[in-house]
Amino acid sequence: MHTAPLLRPQLRAIAAARREREGARPLRLSCVIPCRNEERNLDLLLPLLREMLDALGAEWEVILVDDGSTDATALVMEDWTQVPGVRFIQLSRNFGKEAALTAGLQAAQGEAVLMLDADLQHPVDLVPEMVARWRDGADVVYAYRASRADESLVKRSGARLFYALLNRFHRFRIPEDAGDFRLLDRRAVDALLALPERNRFMKGLYAWIGFDAVGVPYVPPPRAHGRSQFSGLRLLGLSIDGLTAFTTWPLRIVSAVGVAIATASFAYGAYLSGVYLVYGHQVSGWTTIVVALMFFSGIQMIFAGILGEYIARISEEVKARPLYVVKRAAGRGLQPGKP
Q1: pTM, two decimal places
Q2: What pairing do the DSSP bridges indicate for beta strands 86-91 and 112-115?
Q3: CB within 8 A of 114, min separation 6: which ones?
Q4: Are 64 and 77 in contact, with CB atoms under 8 Å apart?
């Protein structure tokens, strides 16, 4: 169930307050776009986005974050900073999409912040509906894929398994098929930026902060130019990051399997002792011994790897390195002000 009811009294009160504020002045809207090698897509996206923002009648800013591009993306961004409201932040290297999103959120000054990708798979035509849901009282409006029919069976099955494991034991639920295409109220943005961790799995953080959220379905169009930066291995790594950042059940499985193996070993030992007392000692086959040793050695290595994943994340947090380093910035967007 992706949509949340927007008829509760507190939401009606929020909606009325927002409309009253907008009656006195326009909506202040920030748009955050993380980019990596998107030089050809930006010249297609930004005119469409600018036209849509002007049609909304909002005071707006567009924050372009270059996450270590190796093409001419930075030059295209710098050219666009000549347009009032467009800002450019270039990171010193590729820090990852989560870091680029965080850099954009920290720079955003709007009372609502829109996040979208630069590859035109997040249709700007959906933004007015997202803004309307925000005006109706939602603190978070996220877009979710209406269908995954365009993806392979392996990818669809992996996505279902990932969300099933991620949402298994949580007090909060991470919406399936939802990504970074979403609109956040300023309160939600401030709560998100207050979280101190450096291993940031943004999908989980969006859900963890809570607030009233509503989903909007969409069908992503084909990517305009280039190809996705997320290969199968990177998606697997992102899944591991999400599971270790928001679940502890892998560690509990280690304990449970350890207890089960110890119990089975005790029972088998008791059985062998009984056989020896009744029938005398029998020499076990070497095949059984070798297979058992290889099996338990493999189990131990898997469990050591699970523990290592958590220890590695603890190490990253203890180092307390910054999420990103800014190489340069240009352009001027919204000025700080009270929503």
Answers
A1: 0.70
A2: unpaired
A3: 29, 30, 31, 32, 127, 130, 182, 183, 184
A4: yes
